[in-house]
Design a protein that fits this description.
By secondary structure, the protein is an alpha/beta fold. Helix content is 47%, strand content 13%. α3 runs parallel beside α5. The N and C termini lie close together (9 Å).
């Protein structure tokens, strides 16, 4: 049985927000990323986003079993933070949410020195996490169906 704390990334793991952000930024090449993030309607973006592979159901299942789950997500603005909290709480997700500001590593917000698990779609984040003593699970929604099945099977083992 696994008793490690499990951290789940928000963008690209729970919701398909990363893809939508890139698409919207391509429509605004005239502004910087910082200005884009400030002007982005985060509530609209997250409302339009799709849940990836029943992620909400898996989190609710783990939450109901009193597993040590938490969300560990990057944010660019306080409005983004508010939109993410609202979206999760409206779906009855009650687990802790840790926010990571720009230019800060996830392992600086929570030090994974006891084998804590990070589920993320960023290989850079996962490498850093493992270097600090954590375990990582790479998530990529675009993998073929057999790879997706293996990823989901691995995640269910932790839940």
């Amino acid at each position: 049985m696994f008793n490690n704390k499990i951290f789940i990334d928000f963008d690209g793991v729970i919701f398909d927000t990363e893809e939508r952000i890139v698409e919207r930024k391509q429509q605004r090449p005239d502004i910087s990323w910082n200005e884009f993030f400030e002007k982005l309607n985060w509530f609209e973006l997250i409302d339009e986003a799709k849940v990836i592979n029943n992620a909400i159901d898996y989190i609710l299942e783990g939450q109901s079993k009193s597993k040590q789950l938490a969300i560990l997500t990057k944010i660019h603005t306080l409005i983004e933070m508010e939109a993410k909290v609202k979206s999760l709480r409206n779906r009855k997700i009650e687990i802790p949410i840790f926010f990571v500001p720009p230019h800060v590593k996830k392992s600086q917000i929570y030090i994974p020195n006891n084998g804590e698990i990070l589920i993320d779609d960023s290989i850079k984040n996962l490498i850093d996490w493992e270097q600090k003593g954590g375990k990582s699970v790479y998530f990529n929604e675009k993998l073929d169906s057999s790879s997706q099945f293996e990823t989901i099977k691995t995640l269910k083992k932790f839940l």
